[in-house]
Design goal:
Length: about 80
């Protein structure tokens, strides 16, 4: 099973929307939420850009579509 990270934060409505989109585009994918507020380095790197999908070194930054998510997951599975 493919696992991706969703860089998120409490109260981020776009992050909720992004999670819903991943669940719709690829229901077999496991999503691991990473709260950027829990780590100063993550806040500095990603705080203004969440939601972000991450798999290894690859990222997909908001805004993205269902097709973008599907392509990201397909490429991440290779």
């Amino acid at each position: 099973m493919t696992e991706i990270e969703l860089l998120t934060a409490d109260g981020c409505s776009l992050c909720v929307q992004a999670r819903d989109m991943v669940e719709q585009a690829a229901p077999w994918v496991r999503i691991r939420a990473v709260d950027v507020a829990a780590d100063e380095d993550l806040i500095q790197a990603w705080g203004a850009r969440i939601p972000v999908l991450r798999h290894g070194e690859r990222t997909l930054e908001w805004p993205f579509s269902l097709l973008d998510i599907q392509g990201f997951i397909e490429d991440s599975s290779k």
